[in-house]
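Hi C.,

You asked whether I'd gotten around to modeling the 397-residue construct. I have! Everything is below, sequence then structure, no commentary in between.
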Amino acid sequence: MQSKAQIDEILRKASDAKDIPGVVAIAASGDDVLYQSAFGKRDLSKPDAMTADSVFWIASMTKAVTSAGAMQLVEQGKLSLDAPIGSLLPDLAKPQVLEGFDAKGEPKLRPAKGAITLRHLMTHTAGFCYDMWNGEFGRYMEKTGTPGIITCQNAALKTPIMTDPGTRWEYGTNIDFVGKAVEAVSGKRLDAYLRDNLFAPLGMSDTGFEITDDMRKRLVGVHARGEDGQLAAMPFELEQNPEFHMGGGGLYSTAADYIKFTQMILNKGRGNGNQVLKSETVAMMGQNQMGDLNMTKMTTAAPVYTNDVDLYPDQAKKWGLSFMINTAKTAEGRSAGSLAWAGLANTYYWIDPARDVTGVILMQLLPFADAKCLQAFAGFERGVYTGLDAGSGQKAA
């Protein structure tokens, strides 16, 4: 198929030119793999070629998985989308809003108006933020000695919110609390819950918070893009004995494993012969759950970790439970109403129910929303839709 060669060329060229260190890309319909390939190196400081089964830190691609686990518990009546979550998670019972700093530089806090709900958390409208995109919160962390979320210390979750719950969208630590809610009602640690209720039923044997010995042999190195644009390997690994499992960003996985999750969403909750979510739950997860609010531009406060993030600036974006939803067709061909998100080290996925197609592309470098990575992603996605349009779904692999 013509589009396979087209995608191969784009990804090979980007890897050969060291625009990206290496990449694994996979696209599928609900029941077929349409494209799969790997190019470049796992780590630019080592000779190993990238392989299709390479293991990546998928960071915030964890969010949809944690939310799917929580939605199983909503189905069972153990969690409620709209009850105050503070009754379950005492840290969220009396949220405080950060209203700047006084003359001495001390944080000014006030009680929040209204309670935080699970729906707020899943749509990033609870008021929590990340210091990477909010300098005020960074200042608060510095002043109070609050550890960063990536430490996986419980103290990292004891923070104020930046706005009253339900009043605006701001990307943040929300899904870490969703993970805590899963633990509170299931009686299991998040890793065990997700393994038993999602990974094992879906056949995702290469996905987890802990890097097993077998996964470590295939682990991809994280790279940093310097100010001169050059890439270099950097030491990075999430805490392997964490105080809490980061439901918002702690998973390691492979492209082949993650596509099983996105195919489950395409197939209305079914994967590997198992119905892990009800079809009506999946439909709800893919619909706007934030009302009149919109996703807004994320302006970096930490350029070493992330660039500004402004995806499809010409259209309104909504948030489901927990996916970004584009409201108009994109230049690459993605249908309106499709679902997508990403991970900090430049991993991306999308799910297009209207066209019965999903794609996952994994790279491993910082900062996030890297221009060269976004180009590779766009070329891959365009190629997938070109293939669909040309062959109405012929296999490209």
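If it helps when you're writing up: The chain has two domains: 2-61+208-391, 75-183.

Thanks,
B.
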